[in-house]
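[recover] target loaded
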């Protein structure tokens, strides 16, 4: 059984779309998505440096567009899809809940709202890798931060004020490392509350369809059968923790044997290798990986 997953913010890297834009159909898809987003996706996917595409207002539409175009180029229908944080919007398009244009409209509103919320107060996120899970959560709470992403595989992402994250780094849990992430705000916490009103209004105005492919939610890892319910959850996830650990548990329970991570792949497959023992993974990082991904998909169909 095959799962396709879409990475979240922080996975982007300078130049990660360069090889894909040499493909005529991928390039045409990016042009369409660029028109819907109002952002120069070509520039930011090829020439912009890492510091530039750290900007939430750029990173989120760029990641969603990249995953959508990559999935179209791949041409594979999985048994289940899931996205991590903003990757959920790309997953919604893959499942048929959103059109491509509506996915880009939705993510643009989300990105701009979250960028504005992040600019209001200096905040950020840090990955805590290793340690005993209970000790990690206790240390995050003691520092005054929040567990924004519970990813499984020995990784939890803390979010909060700069002071809280500094305190966490100074008092890291035993046998754990605290690694600052290239994001501009405390996503999936109450710091993002100002972004939800406009996003909820956008969600209500969009026409959505029920998923044609099983899709999991970051809220609790469950499959969501109604498109409108899924979109409502997307709005709530802006201020609620990402439970990727529960998504992985569901994938395992459903019998997934292979997982493809769309471009820019590597983050989710890395977590899966630790948390989903026995499940084979394939990360799409460049256009050269597409043929191998198709063969991988055929082996797990």
């Amino acid at each position: 059984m095959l799962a396709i997953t879409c990475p979240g913010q922080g996975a982007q890297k300078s130049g990660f779309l360069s090889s894909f834009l040499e493909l005529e159909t991928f390039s045409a898809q990016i042009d369409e998505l660029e028109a819907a987003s109002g952002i120069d996706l070509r520039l930011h996917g090829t020439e912009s440096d890492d510091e530039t595409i750290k900007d939430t207002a750029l990173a989120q539409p760029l990641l969603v567009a990249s995953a959508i175009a990559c999935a179209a180029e791949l041409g594979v229908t999985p048994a289940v899809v899931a996205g991590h944080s903003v990757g959920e919007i790309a997953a919604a398009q893959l499942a048929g809940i959103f059109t491509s244009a509506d996915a880009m409209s939705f993510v643009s509103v989300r990105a701009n709202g979250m960028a504005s919320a992040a600019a209001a107060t200096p905040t950020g996120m840090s990955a805590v890798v290793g340690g005993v899970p209970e000790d990690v959560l206790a240390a995050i709470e003691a520092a005054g931060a929040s567990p924004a992403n519970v990813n499984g595989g020995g990784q939890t992402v803390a979010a909060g004020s700069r002071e809280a994250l500094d305190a966490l780094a100074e008092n890291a849990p035993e046998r754990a490392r605290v690694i600052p992430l290239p994001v501009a705000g405390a996503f999936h916490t109450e710091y993002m509350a100002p972004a939800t009103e406009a996003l909820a209004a956008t969600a209500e105005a969009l026409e959505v369809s029920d998923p044609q492919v099983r899709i999991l939610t970051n809220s609790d890892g469950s499959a969501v059968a109604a498109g409108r319910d899924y979109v409502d959850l997307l709005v709530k996830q802006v201020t609620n923790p990402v439970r990727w650990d529960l998504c992985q548990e569901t994938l395992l329970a459903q019998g997934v044997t292979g997982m493809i991570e769309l471009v820019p792949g590597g983050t989710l497959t890395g977590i899966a290798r630790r948390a989903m023992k026995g499940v084979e993974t394939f990360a799409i990082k460049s256009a050269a990986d597409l043929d191998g991904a198709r063969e991988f998909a055929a082996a797990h169909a």
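[recover] notes: The mean pLDDT is 97.
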